[in-house]
Write a structure and sequence with these properties.
heterodimer; A: mainly alpha; Non-ribosomal Peptide Synthetase Peptidyl Carrier Protein, Chain A; 60% helix; 0% strand; globular; B: alpha/beta; Rossmann fold
Amino acid sequence: MNTFTEIKKIIIDLLDLEGDTITPDTYLIKELGAESIDLLELAVAIHSRFKIAVKDDHIFLTRFRLYLTEAETQGRDMAPYLAGKYPHLPEERIAEIIAHISEGPQLKIKDLISYITYHMKG
Amino acid sequence: MKFGDRHSLNTLFARIGDDLDFMVDCAQGNYESLIAQADEEEVYCYFTENISFRAAVLKTAGRIMLKKRKGRLVFISSTAAARPNPGQGFYAAAKLASEALYRNMGLELGGRGITTIILRPGYVNAGRGRAYMEEKNVLEAVPIKRAVTKEEIAETVLFLLSESAAGMNATVITMDGGLTYGK
């Protein structure tokens, strides 16, 4: 089973979802309605399944907006600043999140996969 | 084990592994000082050991219990949280803060089958309290005119861990013979 299939299984199970509509581009909070307690359980399940240390703030991009403000106040370029904070995310994904940040929580299933893949390699 | 030390946390939970149904927390350092006399460094350490470290223990235990969506956490507090003597300010502050951590845990994870309860014993005829009780005739102020026994505490804890007590969540039970109600 690949990482996406496994993550999908975990999420369907945790959120009690029906059907098979989840793709790597599905928004976890905006579309699936995951709440903070669901994210906590998801972090625990990911740790348990993939045997990696999970930092909840990090994997769920909780501080993304805060880091954007930080970059702004310090007069730094946003994209590289955020890349430093989230080394598991590809550059184009960071740019995409920045572009859409005003449209609500941007966390997608594929961001979880990036985190898992990055930390399994490390 | 050294409270406040991350390595101790890992050692503690390495022994427990991945399976935890119950946790009874009766760990608490003693620190008596008048607030206006306390050493700042000692205060800082005391709160780290007795509050921040406890939060880390709760986090770890909660995450283990979440895997099974079941767990019961009991915190042994003290009536000193409600009615401290002069000199017990730091002890009371740590107990109250810890009670709040336990209560919130029950609030946050109750829906996932993980519940918490706090027991506040009054004068107990054991440990630190015994010398104090012998020295100052404090039991006169207790309506039942005696200390609570350690057997009574143990049996109550067993009850609190039982299914019969499962409806009690995120709350505090006082077991002090009536001491803190009266004046």
